[in-house]
Amino acid sequence: MTDLSAESQPVTDEDENADPRPAASHGPVARLVAVVTVIGFTVPVAAYFWFIGHFGVNVIVGDQWDDVTVIRHSYAGTLTFATLWTQHNENRILFPNLIMLVLAHTTHLDVVTEEYVSGVLLVAAIGCVIWAHKRRSPAIPWIAYCPVAIVMLSFVQYENSLWGFQLAWYLVLLAIAAAIVAIDRVDLTPWMLGAAIGLAVIASFSSLQGLLVWPAGLVLLAYRQRPRSFRTWWIVAAGITVILYFIGFNSHQGETNHLYAIEHPLNTIAFFFYAIGDVTGAPHHAGTAPWVIALGVVIVALAIGAIVDHGLRPTPEGGGPVGVALICVGLGFDVLITLGRAKFGLNGAGQSRYTTFDLLTLVGAYLLVIQPRLANAPAGLGGAHRRSRPPASPSFVRLLRVGITVAMALQIGFGISNGLTAAHLQQEYQRKAITVATHLSTTPNAEVSYSLYVFQPASFIRRQAHTAQRLHLSMYHHLTGPPHG
User: Fold this and answer.
1) DSSP 3-state assignment of 190?
2) CA 66 to CA 253: how far, in whole Å?
3) What is the DSSP letter of 367?
4) What per-residue confidence (pLDDT) applies to 40?
5) pTM, entire model
6) In a domain, 247, yes or no
């Protein structure tokens, strides 16, 4: 008997109406994967907001006392653009100031609410990163993106999570992620490029680290072979933004000391790698320093290896360039804090608030290694139909994947444990700060500064606290009663 080919078989109505997806996609294994995927996304998000609710304390501490001045002007009707634009350390925080004022007039600056808003910004940023990569790599299953959410929502960033003032950095992160989504569209129109430039401006005028969006965006434009005019407009917009940022800029304000980084190169290098390796939140002492630095070296090596494996040539297809852009932001962030903060030594490098951006290097490397290799670039995306570069050594790729998997596992495991321990200590510190803030008349100056704002004299804090109480800000609400009118 002669077998009939598939083409010669008659097509029935039942065949035409059949689901074209493989039967396995409807089986129990597929349903289990779907359930695990949902859990993999929802649990870290729920845990992060539980973390804020459990450890958050409604208290103004540190730099947030400077917000009281802006709020006072807004209540008095004397608020000007100059006030919103005023340099804070090395940062322009125009857009965070606007959000803070909304919260001041709606919640009387409830700091825990501000922390929840930061959490929403972080979740939205993670969603943008995953969307940008998945859109270019539709074959990757959703479950592969769960580690991105788990790592980026790590408790290791407790200083940012539990300090309302750090809303600025979460706004920067969201603006950068949203700009990546806009730039990395398959069909990038002038209008969408304009939207990306607008998002980049928001990032830039939210903190110094926001300026990193410009080189990261240029990397994406180059990888995707965008028209030269688009890259020119991006560079021009970057130049104008940087010029505006530094007009009237006082380089001596804040804690920066660039000369130290130049004069002490070995300490500077150690600071850089320690900051990157601190993604596990290891308690700082002499015994842990070599291991944290070693982990930082490994993460940088893995990130560079992942970029080399992906290739530096234009890549019209795949989500890999999104990972490269994140690595640029992560490493660029550590370069900036190293240049400005190296004088504080390894203890300064191990600040929890840096980890939010430190994690981008690890996440970017992960997004590169899960990117499947395509044999050909589809016509119409990058011009002519071309073959991809020769594959790297299988052992090299395997080493990269194993290394990144181990690094992420260490981050997740130790990050949870160390983050919970440190958050408990921070909660105790902030509760003590409330006691100090509500008993200023009987508290010595040294303790006032130590508990509430170590970089300002007690006299400044007492003035700001008096203003906060007079304005019925949330921290003092139970003492002053609700505001009148």
Assistant:
1) helix
2) 14
3) H
4) 96
5) 0.89
6) yes
pLDDT for res 397: 86
| Angstrom distance (rounded) from CA 216 to CA 91 | 19
pLDDT value of residue 477: 73
Amino acid at residue number 177? A
Report phi then psi at 284, rounded to 5.
-80, 125
Write down the pLDDT at residue 285. Answer: 77
Q: How far apart are CA 452 and CA 464, in angstroms?
A: 11
The range of the structural domain enclosing residue 396 comes to 38-372+390-431
Alpha helix (H) residue ranges in 350-439: 355-369, 394-437
pLDDT digits (tens, 9 = 90+) for 127-144: 999 999 999 999 999 999
Whole-number Å distance between alpha carbons of 313 and 219:
11
Least Cα distance to 326 among 354, 350, 307 occurs for 307
pLDDT in tens, 32-63: 999 999 999 999 999 999 999 999 999 999 99
Q: Are 235 and 198 in contact (CB under 8 A)?
A: no
Note whether residue 8 is domain-resident.
Answer: no
Residue 460 in domain: no
Listed in sequence order, the residues at least 6 apart from 258 whose beta carbon sits closer than 8 Å to its beta carbon are 339, 340
In DSSP terms, 88 is beta-bridged to: 91
Distances 239 to 201, 244, 246, 273 between C-alpha atoms, Å: 11, 9, 11, 30
pLDDT for 162 equals 97
Dmax of the chain from CA atoms? 102
State which amino acid sits at residue 424: H
Residue 21 lies in a domain: no
Structural domain total, the chain: 1
Question: Which segments of the chain have a pLDDT < 70?
Answer: 1-26, 254-258, 286, 373-392, 478-485
Identity of the amino acid at 381: L
The token duo for 158 is: 């407790």
Q: Which residue, chain included where needed, has tokens 């990157």?
A: 276
